[in-house]
Amino acid sequence: MRIVLVGPPGAGKGTQAAFLAKNLSIPHISTGDLFRANISQGTELGKQAKAYMDAGNLVPDEVTIGMAKDRMEQPDAERGFLLDGFPRNVAQAEALDAMLEAEGMQLDAVLDLEVPEDEVVKRIAGRRICRNDSAHVFHVTYSKPKTEGVCDICGGELYQREDDSEETVRKRLEVYHTQTEPIIDHYKGQGLVVTISALGKVSDVTERAMEALRGERAA
């Protein structure tokens, strides 16, 4: 299957992408991984991306599209892929459509993870990170430490990252609504969008998504 995964920040896209890709035996292709791989390998596209990033500028669509195209042409993606973070806007979606059409392929589904905005803010703004080890993550509602402000694992101080503040989260949501959400309408016109609720346990959301995708595959 060839799937695009979309949803607002805090919807759990990365977590669901990993589970879904494993269940479907297809590679999980994330924008973050593409950038890291190209930059670390010193590819021409990686060098271009790094130059823009070092200058504090956004990486142009054509560079991101080029990285995605190279990755989708790898042997492990012949049977399909799950795209996470790409396309990020309508221009990238149109470029993806053209790439697939040129290869005689098409998307099977665009999986839209739906989460109320207030829940997104609650999920992200409630995160607390250990100063000693950023892998130690807690939440003021969903995963409380035994002692407020103290990491259960190492005793380090827990803090809220600047990126996780409510103000920053709402700004990220504005960007999502302006730039990324329009791709849902783009793909609705092609009859590809499958919307599921991303509320509840991770395993429940995964099963919900698999059921929806099985329905698409059967259709």
Automatic annotation (TrEMBL):
<protein>
    <recommendedName>
        <fullName>Adenylate kinase</fullName>
        <ecNumber>2.7.4.3</ecNumber>
    </recommendedName>
</protein>
<feature type="binding site">
    <location>
        <begin position="10"/>
        <end position="15"/>
    </location>
    <ligand>
        <name>ATP</name>
    </ligand>
</feature>
<feature type="binding site">
    <location>
        <position position="127"/>
    </location>
    <ligand>
        <name>ATP</name>
    </ligand>
</feature>
<dbReference type="Pfam" id="PF05191">
    <property type="entry name" value="ADK_lid"/>
</dbReference>
<feature type="binding site">
    <location>
        <position position="31"/>
    </location>
    <ligand>
        <name>AMP</name>
    </ligand>
</feature>
<dbReference type="InterPro" id="IPR027417">
    <property type="entry name" value="P-loop_NTPase"/>
</dbReference>
<keyword id="KW-0547">Nucleotide-binding</keyword>
<keyword id="KW-0963">Cytoplasm</keyword>
<feature type="binding site">
    <location>
        <position position="92"/>
    </location>
    <ligand>
        <name>AMP</name>
    </ligand>
</feature>
<feature type="domain" description="Adenylate kinase active site lid">
    <location>
        <begin position="127"/>
        <end position="163"/>
    </location>
</feature>
<comment type="similarity">
    <text>Belongs to the adenylate kinase family.</text>
</comment>
<feature type="binding site">
    <location>
        <begin position="85"/>
        <end position="88"/>
    </location>
    <ligand>
        <name>AMP</name>
    </ligand>
</feature>
<feature type="region of interest" description="NMP">
    <location>
        <begin position="30"/>
        <end position="59"/>
    </location>
</feature>
<dbReference type="InterPro" id="IPR033690">
    <property type="entry name" value="Adenylat_kinase_CS"/>
</dbReference>
<keyword id="KW-0067">ATP-binding</keyword>
<comment type="pathway">
    <text>Purine metabolism; AMP biosynthesis via salvage pathway; AMP from ADP: step 1/1.</text>
</comment>
<feature type="binding site">
    <location>
        <position position="200"/>
    </location>
    <ligand>
        <name>ATP</name>
    </ligand>
</feature>
<dbReference type="GO" id="GO:0004017">
    <property type="term" value="F:AMP kinase activity"/>
</dbReference>
<dbReference type="Pfam" id="PF00406">
    <property type="entry name" value="ADK"/>
</dbReference>
<comment type="subunit">
    <text>Monomer.</text>
</comment>
<dbReference type="InterPro" id="IPR000850">
    <property type="entry name" value="Adenylat/UMP-CMP_kin"/>
</dbReference>
<keyword id="KW-0418">Kinase</keyword>
<dbReference type="InterPro" id="IPR007862">
    <property type="entry name" value="Adenylate_kinase_lid-dom"/>
</dbReference>
<comment type="function">
    <text>Catalyzes the reversible transfer of the terminal phosphate group between ATP and AMP. Plays an important role in cellular energy homeostasis and in adenine nucleotide metabolism.</text>
</comment>
<feature type="binding site">
    <location>
        <begin position="137"/>
        <end position="138"/>
    </location>
    <ligand>
        <name>ATP</name>
    </ligand>
</feature>
<keyword id="KW-0808">Transferase</keyword>
<feature type="binding site">
    <location>
        <position position="36"/>
    </location>
    <ligand>
        <name>AMP</name>
    </ligand>
</feature>
<feature type="binding site">
    <location>
        <position position="161"/>
    </location>
    <ligand>
        <name>AMP</name>
    </ligand>
</feature>
<dbReference type="InterPro" id="IPR006259">
    <property type="entry name" value="Adenyl_kin_sub"/>
</dbReference>
<feature type="binding site">
    <location>
        <position position="172"/>
    </location>
    <ligand>
        <name>AMP</name>
    </ligand>
</feature>
<feature type="binding site">
    <location>
        <begin position="57"/>
        <end position="59"/>
    </location>
    <ligand>
        <name>AMP</name>
    </ligand>
</feature>
<keyword id="KW-0545">Nucleotide biosynthesis</keyword>
